[in-house]
Amino acid sequence: MVDRVNLSASRLSGLLYVELDNDSSQMVRRVSIKVKEGVARGQIPLPASIFREGGYTLRAYTNWMQNFGEDYVFNQRFYLGIPAKESWLVKSAVNVSRVADKDVVNVDLKLTKTNNLNSPVALKKVDVRIYEGRYYLYKEVMQTGIDGSLKFSQALKAKVDGRILRARIQSLEKGETDKIIRCRLPLTVTKTSTCNFCPRAVIWLRG
Prior knowledge:
Blueprint lengths: L14 E7 L5 E10 L2 E2 L13 E8 L12 E8 L6 E12 L2 E12 L2 E5 L4 E8 L2 E9 L5 E7 L9 E7 L8 E5 L17 E3 L3
Parallel strand pairs: 5-14
Antiparallel strand pairs: 1-2, 1-4, 2-3, 4-5, 6-7, 7-8, 7-11, 9-10, 9-12, 12-13
């Protein structure tokens, strides 16, 4: 942690608060870590009884940072997975466009295999669902492209909480229906809003 003006170690806060939010934007773990000379070190246990496979967001902030809003809170997206033969990972890009006085969410997903990130999940029949919290807004059976891509657009209702949008993708191929991916699709809906997002890390969970 550094002072944004002179990049020196910050001495304004003695505690760093670290949270883990699941793919429904619910906080599942929160810890406080002592800060010394701008450095905070700590660990967060990830017991399999609490943390299921899926997308998570790591948030970190101090009491002082909360005075300046969410833009000053550190966020890092990662995927928590259980090692399995040819399990899948997803990258997502989301943006909102204004079409005929309606907000339209444009979703671009790309599926790859965890044992070879250069190997796409190509030409697979999948069930795609978009949820706002527990309620789904969109459902379609699709086929991934030769590059593992899935692209679709959907008009949003007048009021939607972009913080809790998430996708669920399930394979419909014979013998692969246990392959299910969940990821958040965070965005802010405004007339000119554009939000791009993709997971940057993968963490394996052992039961």
